[in-house]
Inverse folding.
């Protein structure tokens, strides 16, 4: 017997699936297991592998790594990685996770394959013990293993490297290959004459500089005494919010405000 479908009532489905708004996309991601530990925080000494504000990309296994603007770069391990049993990068292993880092000079570093920026980290990301093959504490977990990223937001950064000092309003922002995960302004000299170079650079544009400002004390807060060690804006921080504490002096006076001047940049991300 032939079953007929009434005219006009047959199922028709669209060939897409809308998942979320784009500024905080609904992506379930994890830090790559081979990322070196950048610092340990808190009483428990939680290992952080991605810091807030880091420009990030995905590796061959769709795990989070620092963005390197489409060119390979070298990333170093440390004795801290040996202590925590961080897994060495191994391209032929599942998730890129090789044997554990050991003490001594080997392995000193690894080559991170070329990648493309897809957003930035809104918070510090702890080492993913699930991918590292290490048992998580039964009664303590600093974060869930799954992490999210941000693609479209207005963010204020301290200018903490010489490569950022020549930033100008309107400059496009790309990852700094010499410091994976950090940002730098795109200048004409950064675009090579060959088409491949232009493609790599433009594929890694993540935003635009909206404002560059000199860091100065806010409302005379540099004269206000605060609780020592809390990082509150006051005499301890010279009246400058603690989020800008990593800003460096413009020792070469690139911006013309003096060799001791420090700056912040407001960036509109639009990945």
């Amino acid at each position: 017997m032939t079953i007929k479908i009434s005219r006009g009532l047959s199922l028709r489905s669209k060939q897409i699936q809308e998942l979320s708004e784009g500024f905080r996309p609904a992506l379930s991601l994890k830090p790559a297991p081979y990322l070196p530990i950048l610092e340990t925080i808190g009483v428990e000494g939680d290992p952080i592998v991605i810091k807030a504000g880091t420009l990030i990309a995905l590796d061959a296994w769709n795990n989070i790594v620092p963005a390197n603007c489409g060119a390979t770069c070298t990333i170093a391990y440390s004795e801290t990685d040996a202590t925590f049993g961080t897994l060495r990068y191994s391209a032929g292993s599942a998730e890129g996770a090789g044997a554990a880092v050991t003490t001594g000079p080997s392995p000193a570093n690894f080559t991170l394959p070329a990648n493309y920026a897809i957003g930035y980290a809104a918070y510090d990301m702890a080492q993913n013990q699930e991918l590292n093959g290490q048992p998580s504490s039964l009664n303590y977990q600093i974060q869930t293993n799954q992490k999210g990223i941000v693609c479209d937001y207005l963010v204020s950064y301290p200018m903490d490297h010489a490569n950022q000092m020549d930033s100008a309003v309107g400059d496009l922002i790309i990852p700094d290959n010499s410091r994976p995960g950090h940002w730098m302004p795109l200048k004409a000299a950064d675009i090579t004459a060959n088409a491949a170079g232009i493609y790599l650079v433009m594929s890694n544009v993540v935003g635009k500089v909206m404002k560059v400002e000199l860091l100065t004390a806010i409302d005379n807060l540099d004269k206000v005494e605060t609780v020592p060690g809390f990082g509150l804006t006051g005499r301890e921080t010279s009246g400058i919010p603690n989020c800008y504490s990593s800003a460096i002096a413009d020792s070469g006076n690139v911006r013309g405000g003096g060799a001791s001047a420090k700056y912040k940049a407001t960036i509109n991300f639009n990945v």
User: Anything to note?
Assistant: The chain has two helices and 15 strands. The longest strand covers residues 207-214. The helical segments are 79-84, 195-202.
